[in-house]
Amino acid sequence: MSFAKALRCRECGREYPLDPIFSCEFCFGPLEVSYDLDGIREAVSRDSIGRGPSTIWRYAPFLPCDVEYKVDLGTGYTPLLRADRLAKAIGLDTLWIKNDTVNPTWSFKDRVVSVAIARARQFGFEAIACASTGNLANSVAAHAAGAGMECFVFIPDDLEQGKVVGSGIYNPTVVKVRGSYDDVNRLCTELSMQYPWAFVNINVRPYYAEGSRTIGFEVAEQLGWRTPDHLVAPMASGSMYTKIWKAFQEFHKAGLIDDPKTRMSGAQAAGCSPITTAFEKGTLNFVPQKPNTIAKSLAIGNPADGYYALKQMQETNGGAEMVTDEEVVEGIKLLAETEGIWAETAGGVTIGCLKKMVASGFIRRDEETVAIISGGGLKTLEAVVDALEEQLHVDPKIESFEAAQRARRGALVGAKA
Ligand SMILES: *Cc1c(COP(=O)(O)O)cnc(C)c1O
Ligand SMILES: [Zn+2]
Q: Comparing C-alpha atoms, which of 191, 185, 193, 207 is closest to residue 20?
């Protein structure tokens, strides 16, 4: 059973029923789901959650939809992995990787879509749609297929092949829009007023956004019902970054963990860094940018939750960092080579920014840190294909292999062969 209570305006606090609406009629502020946390406190315990399924649905009382409407592809309860080799490489004592590359469509977007599609079905929508930087489209298309719903996904026309094919395979209508994500989003906002479709990140956005909280719930549970000293998350719209913190606070109010003290930091690519740039200038009002980065999944120039992300940095004594495209590639490689986890470009952004924040002393060595790795690397092959060590190319003969091995620059010739 869901304990969602109302939609609440983040600006004026006015409350609305749980309808497919997303902004306040009075002040146009964004609406957010609030819960009966006292009710949850009565009904839910660490044990009851522990007995739940190994998916996001173990947190069903905290989700704004009824489970009977779910389309369950197995999203969530992804591994929280101790990353000692990476920690050592960058100079931290304790680092954890939240590995969201292993979700059904290989990104954390399966969390938000699971919740949005359940709620959309509960509302009676028959078609589902989204404005996407790629991963969201993949997840919406997969879940629509699983539900047998009509599906329209709108994407910028310059996406990686893995993201385009990663939607097309489920056979939705894929609409490539000549323009940036911000153009796609504007088009979809107009369409949402004319078509009776659930646009997961527009007219059902308040419900969709709540799905990101499950990362925070899982991190707290997997650490043994506590929160880390520091957490670093990638930021596109800034939604996931803010919802992880909301999750920690709600777990506390529901009596499941102590008052969270986590410093929350955000990561962006320099080529699309409206939130980090505003943070560095010390203002809560970001200036929209025209994105130009290989981190396409984070390429939102006008971030819907940018203001709230900036407020959260202040509130939690966290920070924001940005990295160049070269540092994104280095970050992907560093994570892969030290921990065996292949992330997409957003993961390279997170690791690159984490490394910089440790190097500058902003994150202290003794702060136990969690890094959110939000998507898998196979979808962004283009980013790394030219950055890998040359393969050895040999005849099927031992001599040929050994000759190639000797010739290889920097290779450890004859090392315990
Ligand atoms: C969408 C996305 C994000 C961040 O999304 P927000 O809009 O900030 O919630 C991070 N990583 C990946 C891989 C994504 O697809
Ligand atoms: Zn309002």
A: 207
Instruction: Please tell me if the CB atom of residue 236 comes closer than 6 angstroms to any atom of ligand 1.
Output: yes
Nearest ligand 1 atom to alpha carbon 234: 10
Q: Which atom of ligand 1 is nearest to the CA of 235?
A: 8
Same domain, 172 and 115: yes
Average pLDDT, whole number, for the chain? 96
Q: How far is the CA of 239 from the centre of ligand 2 (A)?
A: 19
The Cα–Cα gap between 343 and 99 comes to: 9
Q: Is residue 306 part of a domain?
A: yes
Q: Please report whether residue 377 resides in a domain.
A: yes
Together in a domain, 89 and 120: no
Ligand 1 atom nearest the C-alpha of 303 is 7
Q: Which atom of ligand 1 is nearest to the CA of 237?
A: 7
Ligand number with the minimum distance to the CA of 212? 1
Distance, in Å, from the CA atom of 393 to the CA atom of 401, rounded to the nearest integer, reads: 8
Domain identity same for 199 and 324: no
pLDDT tens sequence across 251-300: 999 999 999 999 999 999 999 999 999 999 999 999 999 999 999 999 99
Mean pLDDT calculated for residue range 389-402: 94
Residues 242 and 326 in one domain: yes
For the chain, the domain total comes to 2
Is there a single domain that holds both residue 358 and residue 279?
yes
Choice from 32, 98, 101, 107 to test ligand 1 binding pocket (greatest atom count within 8 A of CB): 107
Q: Which residues surround ligand 2, an ion (CB under 5 A)?
A: 9, 11-12, 14, 24, 26-27, 29
Spacing, Cα 297 to ligand 1 middle (Å) = 6
Domain that holds residue 227: 80-106+212-386
Report strand pairing: 80-82 vs 95-99. antiparallel
Whether residue 236 is contained in a domain is answered as: yes
pLDDT digits (tens, 9 = 90+) for 138-189: 999 999 999 999 999 999 999 999 999 999 999 999 999 999 999 999 999 9
The CB of 163 under 6 Å from ligand 1? The reply is no
Identify which of 65, 6, 10, 9 has the alpha carbon closest to the alpha carbon of residue 34. 6
User: Does ligand 1 have an atom closer than 6 angstroms to the CB of 138?
Assistant: no
- Is residue 417 over pLDDT 60? no
- Boundary-marking domain end, from 209, 226, 243: 209
Q: Retrieve residue 262's tokens.
A: 């986590």
Residues in the chain: 417
- State residue 413's pLDDT score: 45
Q: What is the pTM of this model?
A: 0.96
DSSP string covering 24-40: -TTT-PBEEEEE-HHHH
CATH number at residue 182: 3.40.50.1100
